[in-house]
Specification:
Blueprint (H helix, E strand, L loop, with lengths): L11 H19 L7 H21 L3 E7 L5 E6 L3 H22 L16 H8 L4 H25 L6 H8 L6 H27 L1
Antiparallel strand pairs: 1-2
Helix pairs in contact: 1-5, 1-7, 2-3, 2-5, 3-5, 3-6, 3-7, 5-7, 6-7
């Protein structure tokens, strides 16, 4: 029977899971603007754009192309579909894929527990790990954080008028502007991350 209240938390596997997520979160945020994370950020950008494309196809639109640029930008060219579904799918899709990867990483997590003790564990494990346990977890955490960090970067620190949130506010201005929609999507992203941690603990219980 599933222990939904996690009364017996936390066993060794659960502690490992939480510590590793914490370490990856710190490492990713500290190294976010460095070249070390560039390959993995491009993977995250691709998943962001792929989420736009999936939303387009699910709403009967046509995907004309997906581009991921070396400067960490990306664009998905679509025709048709439901625009107000396609636009938020990028940020929220990143969070969804992050949650999926975090949950997929709960098996054999302790096999690479030592990597979580080092500041550069993220980069080392991604290149040298013999299995995808921590690779999936680190990329999953990055995807979960990407939407929140990207929303902040686009709407607060730089105010990019062409961001998904600003475009969404143009077609759906009520109840808030682009910053407001970005905040809402950011909160949803945190919910995805929290849900993935909670479900991961349940799986490892």
């Amino acid at each position: 029977m599933v222990n939904w209240e996690l009364n017996s938390c936390c066993n060794n596997g659960q502690v490992t899971f939480l510590v590793t997520i914490g370490v990856f979160t710190v490492v990713i945020l500290v190294l976010w603007r460095t070249v070390l994370l560039l390959p993995f950020k491009l993977i995250t950008v691709f998943l962001h754009e792929a989420s736009h494309a999936i939303a387009c196809k699910l709403t009967c639109g046509h995907v004309e192309g997906i581009k991921v640029h070396a400067d960490e930008g990306g664009v998905t060219q679509t025709r048709g579909g439901i625009y107000w579904v396609i636009l938020p799918a990028g940020y929220l899709g990143s969070s969804f894929w992050g949650m999926a990867l975090i949950l997929a990483s709960t098996n054999l997590l302790t096999a690479r527990i030592a990597a979580g003790c080092f500041l550069l564990a993220l980069v080392v494990v991604l290149f040298y790990a013999k299995n995808w346990t921590l690779r999936g977890l680190s990329i999953g955490v990055m995807n979960s954080l990407f939407s929140v960090y990207d929303i902040y970067d686009d709407l607060i620190s730089r105010r990019v008028n062409s961001s998904d949130a600003e475009k969404f506010a143009e077609i759906c201005p009520c109840p808030c502007n682009g910053v407001g929609w970005g905040f809402i999507w950011g909160m949803i992203s945190f919910i995805f991350l929290g849900a993935s941690v909670y479900l991961g603990l349940l799986i490892l219980a």
